C-alpha cells in the first residue's frame, strides 16, 4: 500500500511540471445522467427519473463537483485559488446536463474565498454557450451533410457488413425483446445506453437483460463510437473544429495575441460537452482508445514552455482517477508545438461550413448584401438608361410633333 502510494505520487509528479505550464485546454463529458430515450417494451418510463430523460443526476453533479476539486488540487499552483475572470473562460454545449456539469465542476474548482453572503458557499462563474444547431465545436449538432454522407458510407462498408453478420443473432434477439424490430450498429445505441443508465441506478431490469447482455451492448456501443470518427474526413469535420479552437488558444498564448482571454493572463479554457465530443477530439488526435468515453471523462491539452523558450504540447486523457499522458502518433510525449500543428493539420478544417457543404451565416449575409447591392446598382443603371432613352426620344419627338401640327394645320 505504501509502495503504491509512492508510485502514485511519482506518477503524478512525472506527468506534471507546473513551472513550465502556460495554458490548459480542458474538455470534459457531462456526469451521470438519465437515459436520453427509451425502447417500446421498456417497463421503466421517463416518470421514473426525477427530472425526466437526458438530465444530469445527483450522482452526475457529485462527479463533476469532485472532478472540479481534483483539478483545483492538480493545478493549485497554476490557477488562482480565487476566481479570476482573466485566467479562465468556460464554454458549454447548450444542453442542460452539460451546463449543470460545468456549474458543479466550477463549484468544486473554485471554493469561495470571498462569499457574497456568509451562508452561501458558492462562487458564481460565467458559462458561455451557443445554440445546438449552430454548434460545430461542442454539441456537434450543426448540420454537416458531407459528414452524414461519409458516415453513411462507413455504415455500409465491409467492416460493418462483416460485424452485422457476426452479431446477427444478437441483433435479432435485441430487436424482438425491445420491440424495435430491426437492430444494427447504427441504432443499438439507445438500447445500450438506456439499459446502462438503468442498471447504474439499480432499477430492476427485464428478465432478458443480464450483465453479459449489458456488456455485449456496451462493446457494440464502443464500436459505434469507433465508426463515427474512423477516417480523416470524419475526424476533420467533427473533432477538427474543437481542436482548431484549442490550437488557436495555444497560438494566441505563444504569440501574445488577445483572444477570448487576454493573452498574458490566460490560464485555462474549459469546455463542457459530450461523449461524442471527447471521442471526436481523441480520434482527431489519433489517440482514441475505442472505448465509449465514461461520464466526466476529460481530455487535456497542456501548453508548456521550456527554458529555451520553445513551446510543446502534452495530451492527457482522464477516464478514471487521474490524467494519463498520451503520445500523439509521430511525436513524443512533449510534442513541440510546431510539430503538433503540422501533425494535426490534416484534421483541421480550413472552412468548416464549406467543407460540410453548407454555407455559414456570415457567407449568406455577405451574399445577400452583395445581391442587394447588385439590385440597387442594377436598378439605378436601368432607371438612368430609361431616363436617358426617354429624354432622347422626347427631344427627337418635339420637332416631329411640330411638323405634324404643321401638317395638320396644312390640312385644315
Ligand atoms: C446563516 O445560517 C444560520 C443557520 O441556518 C442562520 O441562523 C443565519 O441567520 C444565517 N445568516 C445569514 C446572514 O443568512
Ligand atoms: C439499420 O437499421 C435501420 C432501421 O431499421 C435502417 O434504417 C438502416 O438502414 C440500417 N443500417 C444499415 C447499415 O443496414
Ligand atoms: C446502486 O447500488 C449500489 C450497491 O448497493 C450502490 O453503491 C449505488 O450507490 C447505487 N446507485 C444509485 C444511483 O443509487
Ligand atoms: C476503422 O475501424 C476499423 C475497425 O475497428 C479499424 O480496423 C481501423 O483501423 C479504423 N480506422 C481508423 C482510421 O480509425
Ligand atoms: C480508460 O483508458 C484506458 C486506456 O485506454 C483503458 O484501459 C480503460 O479501460 C479505460 N477505462 C474506462 C472506464 O473507459
Question: What does this molecule look like?
Answer:
The chain has 412 residues and is an alpha/beta fold. It has helices at residues 2-15, 58-74, 96-109, 145-155, 158-166, 168-178, 189-200, 211-228, 232-238, 240-254, 275-284, 337-344, 352-356, 361-411; strands at 21-29, 88-92, 268-273, 298-305, 311-318, 324-326, 335-336. Residues 1-14 and 398-412 have low confidence and may be disordered. The chain contains 14 helices and seven strands. Strand 4 and strand 5 (311-318) form a beta hairpin. Strands 1, 2, 3, 4, 5, 6 and 7 form a seven-stranded mixed beta sheet that branches. The chain binds 2-acetamido-2-deoxy-beta-D-glucopyranose (5 copies). Residues 59, 201-202 line the site of one 2-acetamido-2-deoxy-beta-D-glucopyranose.
* Small-molecule components bound: 2-acetamido-2-deoxy-beta-D-glucopyranose
Number of strands: 7
Mind telling me the C-alpha Rg? Answer: 30 Å
CATH class group of the largest domain: Alpha Beta
Mean pLDDT: 90
Named CATH architecture of the largest domain: 3-Layer(aba) Sandwich
Low-confidence stretches: 1-14, 398-412
Key attributes of the depicted protein:
412 residues; alpha/beta; 2 domains; seven-stranded mixed beta sheet; disordered C terminus; binds 2-acetamido-2-deoxy-beta-D-glucopyranose
Q: Could you give a quick summary of the protein structure above?
A:
Helices cover 49% and strands 10% of the residues. The protein has 412 residues and is of the alpha/beta class.
Amino acid at each position: 500500500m505504501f509502495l503504491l502510494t509512492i508510485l502514485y505520487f511519482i506518477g503524478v509528479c512525472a506527468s506534471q511540471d507546473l513551472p513550465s505550464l502556460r495554458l490548459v485546454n480542458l474538455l470534459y463529458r457531462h456526469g451521470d445522467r438519465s437515459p436520453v430515450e427509451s425502447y417500446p417494451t421498456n417497463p421503466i418510463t421517463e416518470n421514473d427519473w426525477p427530472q425526466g430523460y437526458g438530465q444530469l443526476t445527483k450522482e452526475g453533479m457529485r462527479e463533476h463537483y469532485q472532478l472540479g476539486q481534483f483539478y483545483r488540487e492538480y493545478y493549485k499552483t497554476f490557477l488562482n485559488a480565487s476566481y479570476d475572470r482573466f485566467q479562465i473562460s468556460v464554454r458549454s454545449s447548450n444542453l442542460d446536463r452539460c451546463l449543470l456539469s460545468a456549474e458543479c465542476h466550477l463549484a468544486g474548482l473554485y471554493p469561495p474565498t470571498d462569499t457574497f453572503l456568509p451562508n452561501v458557499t458558492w462562487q458564481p462563474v460565467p458559462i458561455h454557450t451557443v445554440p445546438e444547431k449552430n454548434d460545430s465545436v461542442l454539441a456537434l449538432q450543426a448540420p454537416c451533410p458531407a459528414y452524414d454522407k461519409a458516415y453513411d458510407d462507413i455504415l455500409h462498408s465491409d467492416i460493418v457488413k462483416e460485424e452485422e453478420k457476426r452479431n446477427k443473432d444478437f441483433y435479432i434477439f435485441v430487436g424482438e425483446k425491445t420491440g424495435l424490430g430491426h437492430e444494427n450498429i447504427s441504432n443499438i445505441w439507445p438500447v445500450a445506453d438506456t439499459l446502462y443508465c438503468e442498471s447504474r441506478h439499480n432499477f430492476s431490469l427485464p428478465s432478458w437483460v443480464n450483465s453479459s447482455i449489458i456488456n455485449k451492448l456496451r462493446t457494440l456501443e464502443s464500436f459505434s463510437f469507433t465508426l463515427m470518427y474512423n477516417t480523416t474526413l470524419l475526424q476533420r469535420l467533427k473533432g477538427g473544429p474543437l481542436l482548431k479552437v484549442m490550437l488557436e488558444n495555444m497560438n494566441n498564448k505563444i504569440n501574445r495575441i488577445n483572444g477570448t482571454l487576454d493573452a498574458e493572463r490566460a490560464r485555462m479554457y474549459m469546455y463542457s460537452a459530450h461523449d461524442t465530443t471527447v471521442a471526436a477530439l481523441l480520434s482527431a488526435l489519433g489517440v482514441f482508445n475505442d472505448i465509449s468515453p465514461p461520464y466526466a471523462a476529460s481530455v487535456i491539452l497542456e501548453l508548456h514552455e521550456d527554458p529555451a523558450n520553445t513551446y510543446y504540447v502534452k495530451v492527457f486523457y482522464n477516464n478514471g482517477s487521474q490524467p494519463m499522458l498520451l503520445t500523439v502518433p509521430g511525436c513524443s510525449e512533449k510534442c513541440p508545438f510546431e510539430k503538433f500543428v503540422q501533425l494535426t493539420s490534416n484534421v483541421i478544417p480550413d472552412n468548416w461550413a464549406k467543407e460540410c457543404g453548407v454555407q455559414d451565416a456570415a457567407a449568406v449575409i455577405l451574399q445577400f448584401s452583395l445581391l442587394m447591392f447588385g439590385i440597387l446598382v442594377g436598378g439605378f443603371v436601368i432607371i438612368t438608361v430609361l431616363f436617358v432613352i426617354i429624354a432622347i426620344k422626347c427631344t427627337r419627338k418635339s420637332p416631329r410633333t411640330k411638323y405634324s401640327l404643321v401638317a395638320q394645320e396644312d390640312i385644315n
